[in-house]
Amino acid sequence: MPRAVIVDAIRTPMGKGKAGGALADVHPVDLLAQVLTALVERSDIDPGTVDDILIGCVGQNLEQSATPGRQAALAAGFPVHVPASTIERKCGSGQQAVDFAVQGVMAGAYDIVIAGGVESMSRVPMGSARGDTDPFGPAVTARFGPLVSQGVAAELVADKWKIDRASLDRYSARSHERAAAAAARGAFADQIVPITTPTGVVDADESIRPGTTAEKLGGLRAVFGTDANRERFGDIDWKVTAGNSSQITDGASALLIMSEDKATALGVTPRARIVASAVLGDDPMMMLTAPIPATRKVLGKAGLTVDDIATFEVNEAFASVPLAWQHELGVADDVLNPVGGAIALGHPLGASGARIMTTMIHHLVGTGGRYGLQTMCEAGGMANATIVESLA
After folding, report:
1. pLDDT over 90 (residue 204)
2. Which of 54, 217, 247, 293 has a beta carbon 3.0–4.6 Å from 97's, enabling a disulfide?
3. Is 57 considered catalytic here?
4. Does residue 222 sit within a domain?
5. Is 16's pLDDT higher than 90?
6. What is the CATH number of the domain that holds 355?
7. Could you confirm whether 347 is annotated as catalytic?
8. What mean pLDDT comes out for the span 199-221?
9. Is 332 a member of any domain?
10. Where are the alpha helices (DSSP H) in 219-314?
11. Which of 58, 114, 11 is nearest to 378 (CA)?
12. Which position among 91, 176, 362, 363 bears the catalytic label?
């Protein structure tokens, strides 16, 4: 069976996902196209040798409706014979794209494949594909009751694990502190592709807020404690705010994946390989808890324990998610999201899985760590988990 290796992994800077954001004037196709161009140029490969492009994207409507990976490849000047597909597993879409790419190489279907994700949340607003319709249907509602938003689910997680507001805000301030420190020491430099916009070049994350403190975050209003939610869920101390949640962001990321034999033939040096991957569902009402059993599942598949892992990336959809995960897995603070996460770096939905993997691989290479584990909570109560081994 061919072994799949990751030759390179890059991302855009993260731009605020609103009008006036650093990347808001860039069409998502053009945003991803610049990443694809940089990816093949950095590795000096012929884009015509790419067998497929797998791109995660959640908002597949408006400017992201026409198979954005295909359009981005055309915009990047790839030969027309290079195909693409769009993958949607909610927040884990980019991570699932990487898993599918690796599985394709191992099955012998691909020699060279690009996997990644894109989301322009300033131009394609979150939830705009759904509109005012009911996405669940009467049978799901009859089985589980009316499902809740992810924000309410984050409150339910915080309540179940008895995570107080101060802990959420401390964790969130730490995310910004770690990301700011990483940016200052140049830890993101090799993974970020400068993006040309109509008004200039963007080469740094816009989302990081140096100087953020738990005290400042403590002044923000909890946003999900509406009268309807209070009536339904009773005596919950509502504590989820914009400050202890992931940021709405524009961004794209891509990884170049190929068989080990092809990498050897081309004379390129792989950065990493995928050791094991898993996907799992959990309670759709709690929604954000699946990373806990998914982590245990992927560790079991890899024959590893938490003590073998040098760094863990648990997507910071809300601060309660990694904190509940940490409570169950017993992982030390210093190896959990060591350069910050989505609270500081943003969460461009379909791109986040690839962005996090890109950041994790570069961190492992830069620090000499061997194994990294990444997991993403996903709407509907699902999670992807992947273990990467650095080959540097």
Report:
1. yes
2. 54
3. no
4. no
5. yes
6. 3.40.47.10
7. yes
8. 97
9. yes
10. 227-233, 260-266, 291-302
11. 58
12. 91
Return the residue matching tokens 């597909």: 85
Assigned domain for 281 exists: yes
Among 50, 61, 131, smallest CA distance to 349 is for 61
State yes or no: is 377 an active-site residue: yes
Question: Does the predicted TM-score (pTM) go above 0.90?
Answer: yes
Q: How many domains does the chain have?
A: 1
Choose, from 57, 362, 363, 377, the residue flagged as catalytic. Answer: 377
- Least confident range from 43-52, 83-92, 219-228, 291-300: namely 219-228
The whole domain housing 310 covers: 274-390
pLDDT over threshold 90, residue 92: yes
State how far the Cα of 28 lies from the Cα of 34, in Å rounded to an integer: 10
Please give the pLDDT value at position 215.
Answer: 98
The residue from 57, 176, 347, 362 that is catalytic is 347
Inter-residue contact 16 to 122 (CB < 8 Å): yes
Interatomic CA distance for residues 272 and 365, integer angstroms: 9
Give yes or no for residue 134 having a pLDDT over 90. Answer: no
pLDDT of 392 over the 90 cut = no
Q: Tell me how far apart the alpha carbons of residues 360 and 313 are, in angstroms, rounded to a whole number.
A: 7
